[in-house]
Design a protein that fits this description.
Helices cover 23% and strands 25% of the residues. The chain has 71 residues and is α+β, with helices and mostly antiparallel strands. It has one domain: Single Sheet (N-terminal domain of TfIIb). Strand 3 and strand 4 form a beta hairpin.
Length: 71
Amino acid sequence: MISKELLEILCCPETKADLVLEGNALVSVDKNTRRRYKIENDIPIMLIEESEQLGLEEWKAIMLKHGKNID
């Protein structure tokens, strides 16, 4: 599990946007890129080429769940 302290200092390597913890992944709050980074064995895989770009609706649902702005 990712600690709150670690989550506070991690950011998206592409845009430097904040991240939210969603299941076993970290999701960027950046609406343009919508990157999801996997967490394997409690280690976030923060490589852009290993990330996944979420569809807009899925990203919006995750952001709303975490109380983030979707505009």
